[in-house]
């Protein structure tokens, strides 16, 4: 009787450790599919908002922007962010950089990577 009880306890212990190992692997897999991107909004030469946004891997710039702020668009172009709108008559537009370099795609097409720094600036374009 004692050997059966010992066998049952040993089996239950092994089963418990096996289940806990599986749950740790799934948490690690989920966290490796997430990235953190820092977004900064700037008007002229002054930053007015910065947020760290968690996104899925291979997310687009626009996804993180919309997750952090209210975004207004017209025909695929960003016309306003967080209530601050561009003014075409004065040639004031939203532009953006990633890690200090001008992006070569629109925000809806540009992919971000973990620890990227995206800066949107509302300023006069020459």
Account of the protein in words:
This protein has 126 residues and is an alpha+beta fold. The protein folds into 2 domains: 32 residues; 90 residues, Beta Complex (Ferric Hydroxamate Uptake Protein, Chain A, domain 1), CATH 2.170.130.30. Helix content is 31%, strand content 39%. It has 2 helices and 8 strands; from the N terminus they run αββαββββββ. The strands form 2 sheets. A 5-stranded mixed β-sheet has the order 2-1-8-6-7. It has a 3-stranded antiparallel β-sheet with strand order 3-4-5, with no helix packed on it. A hairpin with a 2-residue loop joins strand 3 and strand 4. The radius of gyration is 24 Å and the shape is elongated. The termini are far apart. About 4% of the residues have low confidence.
**Can you tell me the CATH architecture of the largest domain?**
Beta Complex
Overall geometry comes to elongated
Could you give the order of strands across the largest sheet? 2-1-8-6-7
Question: Any idea of the CATH topology of the largest domain?
Answer: Ferric Hydroxamate Uptake Protein, Chain A, domain 1
- Tally of separate helices: 2
Number of strands: 8
Question: Nearest-angstrom radius of gyration?
Answer: 24 Å
Q: What is the first-to-last residue Cα distance? A: 88 Å
Order of helices and strands: HEEHEEEEEE
Contiguous low-pLDDT stretches (5 residues minimum) are: 15-19
Q: Could you estimate the helical fraction of the residues in percent?
A: 25-40%
> Oligomeric status of the shown chains?
single chain
Task: Label the structural class.
Answer: alpha+beta
CATH class placement of the largest domain:
Mainly Beta
The whole-number mean of residue pLDDT values reads 85
Q: Biggest sheet: strands, sense, closure?
A: 5 strands, mixed
Overall tally of domains: 2
User: Strand percentage, roughly?
Assistant: 35-45%
């Amino acid at each position: 009787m004692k050997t059966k009880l010992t066998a049952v306890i040993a089996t239950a212990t092994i089963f418990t450790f096996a289940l806990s190992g599986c749950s740790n692997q799934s948490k690690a897999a989920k966290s490796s599919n997430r990235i953190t991107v820092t977004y900064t909004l700037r008007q002229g030469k002054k930053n007015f908002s910065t947020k760290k946004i968690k996104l899925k891997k291979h997310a687009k710039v626009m996804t993180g922007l919309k997750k952090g702020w209210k975004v207004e668009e017209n025909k695929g172009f960003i016309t306003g962010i967080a209530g601050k709108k561009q003014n075409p008559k004065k040639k004031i537009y939203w532009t953006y950089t990633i890690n200090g370099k001008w992006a070569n795609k629109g925000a809806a097409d540009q992919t971000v990577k973990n620890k990227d720094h995206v800066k949107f600036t509302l300023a006069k374009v020459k």
